Amino acid sequence: MILNKFRSLLKNDNRNSKYKRNVILLALCQVLGIIVSLLLVPITLNYLGVKEYGVWVTLTAIIGWFAFLDIGLGHGLRNKYAEARAREDYTDVKQYVSTAFFGLIFISSALFVIFLAVSPFINWATVLNAPQEMASDLNLLALFVIGTFCIRFVVNIVSILLTADQEPAIPMVIGFLGNLLSLIAVYLVTILFESSLLYIGIVLSISQIFPLIIAFVYLFATRYKPVMPSFKYFSKDHINSIFSLGIRFFAIQLTALILFQTNNIIIAHVCGLDEVTEFNIAFKYINVLY
């Protein structure tokens, strides 16, 4: 009886069923995600050790700052896409998607080129307050992480469209699959290789982005095929429309970045990398409770 109701809920596409389905999937992914996170942290910590784990956490926190460099483009697309869909203006929908997509490609490409140009002059061991003998591996790891981040920056457009279509659970499922794949991959690395921050960083970066790339290819080949990005639908007029709305969200995001995303780098320089690990693990457990 319960199973039949659940099957009906998955197949039914009316507004009420969609809402219930998303609530159930969001709750399920939240619980499973917490379990995966609680398993991943001790495995990674035992493999890397306290100091190298602190380095990894601080590095990913810094790279994560670049997510805000879309200047609100994602938020602008989500709202303009939803408005155009509500008007059933599918030409506008295609133009908004294509304009945002190529805008994201431009931003991510510019970011990567700039990073390549300045990378030889950055000593990541100094930036992260890590031992200088780690400098070579950290410089290589930072380049790899920023590269995968730039790819994620672009393909994450499918998550924006799904959220605009009132399907927030699907991006959550994609994120959970990335975390699950990370857990499996990290466990295999701990069995097959000696302790290496470089290996862990590469494995975690690829594992996180792989399900999103698959979702990007699949969804634009099926559900979003009618609005697949095409340069002929790129519209200069729509750039201003998307950015003018998105820039308001960007101001809020920037404030949140300063308040919540600078902890690790400050702790690394003031207290040391060991304390970054302590703080980060405690913070994860508090998030589980609240």
Any overview of this molecule?
- The chain has one domain.
- The protein is mostly helical and 290 residues long.
- The mean pLDDT is 83.
- The longest helix is centred in the first third of the chain and has 34 residues.
- 81% of the residues lie in helices and 0% in strands.
E-strand count: 0
Shape: globular
- Write the H/E string, N to C: HHHHHHHHHHHHH
Question: Mean pLDDT score, rounded?
Answer: 83
Provide the helix percentage.
Answer: over 70%
Task: Provide the gyration radius in Å.
Answer: 21 Å
Number of domains: 1
The biggest beta sheet reads: none
Proportion of residues in β-strands = under 5%
Number of helices: 13
Distance between the termini: 34 Å
Task: Describe this protein with a few key phrases.
mainly alpha; 290 residues; 0% strand; globular; 81% helix
List the helices and strands and how they pair.
Blueprint: H1 2-11, H2 15-48, H3 50-64, H4 73-87, H5 90-118, H6 124-127, H7 135-155, H8 157-164, H9 169-192, H10 197-221, H11 236-260, H12 263-270, H13 273-289
Helix pairs in contact: 2-3, 2-9, 2-13, 3-7, 3-13, 4-5, 4-8, 4-11, 5-7, 5-11, 7-10, 9-10, 12-13
